[in-house]
Design brief:
CATH topology: Aminopeptidase
CATH class: Alpha Beta
GO molecular function: acyltransferase activity, transferring groups other than amino-acyl groups
Order of helices and strands: EHHHEEEHEHEE
Structural class: alpha+beta
Keywords: Transferase
Number of helices: 5
Shape: globular
Number of domains: 1
CATH superfamily: Gcn5-related N-acetyltransferase (GNAT)
Strand order of the largest sheet: 1-2-3-4-5-7-6
CATH architecture: 3-Layer(aba) Sandwich
Protein name: GCN5-related N-acetyltransferase
Distance between the termini: 29 Å
InterPro entries: Acetyltransferase_Enz, Acyl_CoA_acyltransferase, GNAT_dom
Organism: Marinomonas sp. (strain MWYL1)
Radius of gyration: 14 Å
Length: about 150
């Protein structure tokens, strides 16, 4: 029913942009500080292996979720934009997606994965903690009060 696959930017770019924008719109605060539209112009560079990856969750022929990681340095990557459409939650897709992201990161030589999660995304934070993420220093700029910065060794 569901499958998780790496995005092929030549075929999936419009789908990636659509689900990323859906994720951004779901945030309870403005994420404009991330300058997303500028980043979207060069997704295939920042999010292509070994620098990073975008995974899409498919239900039949429809994208219903996403997740990504990007390179911080030779040992550390940052998980980004983990999102499952509300109508598809409750199938452990977030957990499967995060585990797949960690697996791919480790296969590509990363030793540590970090992330930030907004205080309003408490369900996501609990998932990350259950998967072994612990408080850590930020690896990227996030000015939103209450944001949790988490990391774990791979």
């Amino acid at each position: 029913m569901f499958s998780i696959r790496s995005a092929n930017f030549s075929q999936d770019n419009a789908r990636v942009l659509a689900i990323f924008r859906e994720y951004i719109a779901s945030a309870p605060v403005s994420l404009e500080y991330q300058q997303n539209e500028q980043e979207f112009v060069a997704l295939d560079g920042k999010y292509s292996l070994p620098n990073g990856v975008v995974l899409l969750i498919w239900k039949d022929n429809e994208v219903v979720g996403c997740g990504a990681f990007r390179r911080v340095d030779a040992q550390i990557c940052e998980m980004k934009r983990v999102y499952v459409r509300p109508t598809e939650r409750g199938h452990q897709l977030g957990e499967k997606l995060v585990n797949k992201l960690m697996e791919i990161a480790k296969e590509n030589g990363y030793q540590r994965m970090c992330l930030d999660v907004l205080a309003d995304f408490e369900t996501a934070r609990r998932l990350y903690v259950r998967l072994g993420f612990e408080p850590c220093d930020p690896v990227s700029y996030n000015p939103i009060p209450g944001t949790h910065f988490l990391g774990r060794n791979l």
